[in-house]
Amino acid sequence: MIIIHAGMHKTGSSSIQETFAKLDGNRVDYAPWRAANHSGLFFTLFHSSPEKQGGFRLVSTSPDEIGKSRDTWGKRFRQMLERRREQQTTRPMIISTETVSSAATGREEAVEKMADYLRSHSSEDVRVIAYVRPPRSLMSSGFQQVIKSGRGLNLAKYGNRPNYRARFEKLDRIFGRENVTLKLFQRDSDVVLDFAHEIGIALDPGGVVRTNESMSLEATAMLYVHTRLGNGFQPRTRDERLRLVRFVDRLSKLGTRRFVLSDTLTDPLIEANRADLDWMEARLGAPLSEPPVPQGQGVEGEAHLINAAIAARPLIEQEIADLSGPDTPAFKTPASDAPAYELARRLDLLKDF
Fold this sequence. Notes:
Structural class: alpha/beta
Number of strands: 5
Largest sheet: 5 strands, parallel
Low-confidence stretches: none
Oligomer: single chain
Strand content: 5-15%
Number of domains: 2
Order of helices and strands: EHEHHHEHEHHEHHHHHHHH
Helix content: 40-55%
Radius of gyration: 22 Å
């Protein structure tokens, strides 16, 4: 059995990937790639223009470089399928890439190409498993994902739609609905153990690799201020991309408050996309209901987010003090009319560490 784990994004996918990559050759065959996340492998082997996708686009990977990767990793991927056929192994093979359930233009053709490739190189059954995140929390995590990419974003214009039907209907069509398992993602459940159960693997809770993909309110607010009001990043090279990753990782360690968008921001988007949600609930056979965000706990607008960043400024001052030398300008109380811009300039000091 070949298992395609198709996300969604922000449903514990990183934990699933890191956990099962460590089991490769033991209880599972984990598709070969340079990372546990197979999105790059998916683009390399099956997308018509991989250089314009994901991380390849961000670091300006050339078509020649991708061609070499296609030769190398395509051979290893094919060898794994051939070895499984020769050995008639019963352990599952796992391909894990959230991009399979992406609604982005051009991805459906790539998914069809992957399905055709698997059918032509293997006689094994193919099963798709994906976890569906409810819309409110999906919008909050999607907002974080955008600013973590280094892009400036105006919260007032944020309108990330779930696009459930565009994500999942193609999987039913390409692989057959009977071969596609969609499950409601619940924050208080263990998605890794659930996935293991779905594919018939006994997994001890102690063997789960825990990753935390979310950022606190304080970290999200400071990153928002930096991308919106500061110099930000232009991650067009590998070095710039690495600098951005280090910067985001550093901020991600700060703060303790949970980031979530208020219902006043998400409810209008939900209602505007009611037909899409109705389709998803019918396909799941379960409601995509979520408890309301308690009054005062959700971010209600840009001013709310900027004020949260300003209030958390002492956290980055300690970071600057720990990292910088004696020549770094000391903290000065900013003018009352420019605290957010002053904070953005202070955040710039962390970019080069």
